[in-house]
Design a protein that fits this description.
Layout: H1 3-16, E1 29-38, H2 47-50, E2 58-72, E3 79-86, E4 89-96, E5 102-109, H3 137-143, H4 167-175, H5 181-185, H6 189-199, H7 204-207, H8 210-224, H9 228-232
Antiparallel strand pairs: 1-2, 1-5, 2-3, 3-4
Length: 233
């Protein structure tokens, strides 16, 4: 592996620590959540606002839903093309898979196609442009992929107390409804495998002993909670 490949791998890993990349291909219907940065500009005619401080840019998520008609490239340069019908007109958009402007990619429906490029859809309308949904064993397995934990009760806890959990990883764990130290302390082998696959951690949970650290924190918290009667005695 040369230097360029190493740098590309590092950039890919940095993106994968923030979000996952699901398995999808041409014919699948996906929803891409794109980060849009908006900057509020002051009216030049309004003299009162000239002296006012410029507002900080705001970020919002915009959904783009359509059918994947092509997927090309490899590594950091891999991209996919999504086509949708907007107000009766076909609209296409190319997304780099490892773009930092993509917050999430969700597969809504898996299509049954034989071609790697579905450019023929550009000349079709209505029923002729429909794609049959896949119902084989592989499609069922992908559709039944692990979605995360059931949402626990109570406020979120600071998971960054556990060495190895960065604020980025903590944010992605929260997306999986894992934001309690007790949840980390009671992870099963299946839970560990699912989290590592979803967050692309490559054995990080076991190497850094997240479970042992979480149990130690739980023990410290329990020891600190002394009943009032015992404290008086």
């Amino acid at each position: 592996m040369n230097i360029i490949q190493e740098l590309e791998r590092e950039q890919m890993d940095a993106i994968l620590t923030k979000r996952g990349v699901p398995e999808f291909g041409p014919g699948d219907t996906v929803k891409v959540m794109v980060r849009v940065v908006e900057v509020a500009e002051a009216d030049p005619k309004d003299k009162k606002k000239k002296a006012a401080a410029v507002k900080a840019p705001t970020e919002r998520l915009q959904a783009y839903e359509g059918v994947v008609i092509a997927r090309s490239g490899a590594g950091l340069n891999e991209s996919f093309t999504v086509r949708k019908i907007s107000y009766g007109e076909g609209v296409e958009r190319v997304f780099p898979i490892y773009s930092p402007h993509i917050a999430e990619i969700e597969v809504l429906r898996r299509g049954k196609v034989r071609r790697a490029k579905l450019y023929y859809l550009r000349g079709r309308r209505g029923k002729a442009a429909r794609i049959v949904e896949r119902s084989d064993a592989r499609a069922r397995r992908l559709n039944a992929a692990w979605k995360g934990f059931k949402k626990p009760k109570g406020e979120a806890e600071d998971l960054t107390q556990i060495k190895g959990i960065t604020p980025e990883i903590a944010g992605r764990l929260k997306q999986l409804n894992c934001y309690k130290i007790e949840q980390i302390a009671t992870l099963s082998d299946d839970d560990m495998a699912n989290i590592e696959e979803a967050l692309n951690l490559s054995g990080q949970i076991e190497k850094q002993d997240w479970i042992g650290q979480a149990r130690k924190l739980m023990a410290e918290l329990t020891a600190g909670e002394v009943p009032a009667e015992d404290a008086k005695g």
